[in-house]
Description:
By secondary structure, this protein is α/β, with parallel strands linked by helices. It contains nine helices and 14 strands. The chain is elongated and about 70 Å long. Bound molecules: flavin-adenine dinucleotide. The site of flavin-adenine dinucleotide (FAD) has 30 residues, from helix 6, helix 7, strand 13 and helix 9. The site of flavin-adenine dinucleotide has 30 residues, from helix 6, helix 7, strand 13 and helix 9.
Amino acid sequence: METVLVLMHVEADGSLAKSALEALGAAKSLGGTLVVGLIGANVQAAASAIAGCGAAKFLGVSGTVFSQARYGTDAAAAEALCRAAKATLVIAPATSRWNRVLSGVAHRLGGRSDTHVTGISAATTQGVGVTRWYYRQRMEAVLQRTQRPWFIALESGCGEAWKGSAGTAKIEAVVVTLSETATRTSVSGVKAPASDQQTIRPDAKILFVAGAGWTKKQSDGQTHTDEAGEIILKFLGLTKASLGSSKSLVDLSGEGQSVLPFMSHLNQVGQTGATPRHPKGLSTCCHGEEPHAVGWRFISERRAVNLDPNCGWARGKADVLYVADAFEVMRKVNALLGTTKT
Ligand SMILES: Cc1cc2nc3c(=O)[nH]c(=O)nc-3n(C[C@H](O)[C@H](O)[C@H](O)COP(=O)(O)OP(=O)(O)OC[C@H]3O[C@@H](n4cnc5c(N)ncnc54)[C@H](O)[C@@H]3O)c2cc1C
């Protein structure tokens, strides 16, 4: 029988992120002995919030030194939690914090690690198997391993977050002996765009994909890039949707064409971009195969607005294609959304 340890770090306010609860949900579905391992400045509130999860044990590494993401302290804490739990399977949300340390911790414990896992199941013929996508998200494989401990970083948005009753969890404190070098890195601050300027929102209900058409000459023979930017930002502001882009649109700045200033390569979806997961997607002024075939393959409900009724990718990959001018459609959508909000 497997001993399944779920590794979670608590957020600055002491809570657990949705991705941590998704990892807990996946771990629970495997059966076996469940152990929760928490790290953070103070882990009691987080443990109590998931007290009803059925864990055999709650292990905690706490203290201000463990509040910030840092390889030395995170790896030492994870190693100590794995040893204390005698874990055979270790499941962690694929946050940048865990992704950075899991392979190192697996090495210290003689285990193996897999990242970018999109599903875990105990129902395969040889015990636990994980699913992972290859060749730019075009082929899905199921992997199994005999080596233990097996570290699994689970991508966010791939499973149900655990829901259940809170209570008062009894935490067993795990003591970590830190080497002299473990704390030599300190985080002096975080530089990030203001939240209203941040256009990539992994937890948003809608992904809005903008294509290069927004910057092309329109029926009056002119480009309307400034207006395009205003329309897109207004829609994002009203819906809190996440913004994706085609490669052509983000590449335009390098070609000296008028561009949308808030768009960067980080927004790009597709074969050489991201493949985000959102319940709904709306693609506008976008023709390319890669954004349609790969970029939004994990979007559940897909709609597109394109002037071109023969756009094979929009037609082939969207559930609904509106053959229309995206400027007109989105102006109207924004007006309707504005009315609903006021
Ligand atoms: C190896 C490789 C990897 C690639 N990887 C990626 C990738 O990861 N992601 C990616 O996006 N691309 C990728 N590409 C590029 C891709 O093939 C396309 O060139 C690109 O996606 C096209 O971008 P687009 O659809 O925005 O622009 P365009 O092809 O210029 O299409 C613009 C569309 O806007 C429509 N339009 C114009 N005005 C309006 C209007 N007013 N209302 C409605 N519709 C309008 C037009 O009808 C047209 O369909 C890759 C290419 C290669 C070779």
